Amino acid sequence: MSGLPDALTDFGPAAFAAVVVAVYLVAGEPVAGHVLHRRFEGRLRTDPGARRSFYGRLLVLEWGLALLALVVWLSAPGVDAAAVGLTWPRSWPGPLTLLLVVLVLGFVVVSTRALRGGALMEATAPPPRRPPGQGRHAEPPGHATLALLPRTAGERRLFTVVGLTAGICEEWLYRGFFLAVVAAVAGDLPGWVLVLVAAVAFGLAHAYQGRAGILLTGVLGGVMAALYLGTGSLLIPVLLHAAIDLRFLLVPTRVLPTARPAW
């Protein structure tokens, strides 16, 4: 297991700031994510640059939080790089963790194929009849997920940066930094408890995706935490996380709806 801090005093003068950032990741990030995505959905109705703007806001938010956590850690004299996963792997994951990784990779392949098929069906299906009293811009089923995916070459390039950013920043925030603070506050916790805490925090951060999204991202967050604690490094979780997000680039632009249907 990673050499996590033993007590909050290890953070020294940065202890209060570390707790504040950790609490925000659990309680504030779900609210910020919900607001950000609702605004995106509203702008998508009329603004052709809504996706690029949304990607840009994501980049500012994630790198801003990551840099803030980095400054807090650099101000903590008793927390070294190994305590937050900023080191090379000290060991390979155990058989159970490797099995989880294989299952996650299998999920990536299956979900990507399913997404390609779902996108193709939505792109070619005729728009459903508008029920009486329903607004002009009602959403077809599944449109919200597909709306996030890039269409143009410029959007795809920016989305690539977003995917890499998510792999780096979210692993640093929710595995490296967050678990260090949890371990410092709660003391000597078993590894499975830390995995569970990381899973819950990461799932809540994706509350805007609904219950299914919370469950799915929570499971993925737990797997990343197990990888991190098993290797003592954020390297493998970062690479796996980035691959999961970048899989959306495998969905061909030609099968995605290019415009919102006007019903």
UniProtKB/TrEMBL annotation:
Region (Disordered): 121-141
Domain CAAX prenyl protease 2/Lysostaphin resistance protein A-like: 158-246
Keyword Protease listed: yes
Gene Ontology annotations of biological process type: CAAX-box protein maturation; proteolysis
Keyword presence, Transmembrane helix: yes
Transmembrane intervals: 12-33, 54-76, 96-115, 177-202, 214-240
InterPro entries: Rce1/LyrA-like_dom
Provenance organism: Blastococcus aurantiacus
Molecular function as annotated in GO: endopeptidase activity
The protein, known as: Membrane protease YdiL, CAAX protease family
Keywords, ordered alphabetically: Hydrolase, Membrane, Protease, Transmembrane, Transmembrane helix
